Amino acid sequence: MVNSEPLTQPGFFGARNSSLMSLLRRGHENVSLPPAAFDRLATWMDANALFYGTFDPASQARQLRGERIAGPSLH
Prior knowledge:
The protein is an all-alpha fold. It is about 35% helix and about 0% strand. The chain is built from three helices and no strands. It is globular and about 35 Å long.
């Protein structure tokens, strides 16, 4: 048994191929991010960051419904 990720084509996942990033680059609805914010967003996408802000299933369900959840504990 091999424990490895399959090879992917460069640019297939992450910010480079993201619909959101494409919209932002074109200036959709006159949205303009400062370069640092744009870079943070791209890094977040490329790092395969979590969609949910929690591992708790009940909080994930609330977030999916658009409800606010508590931020992560920072201790």
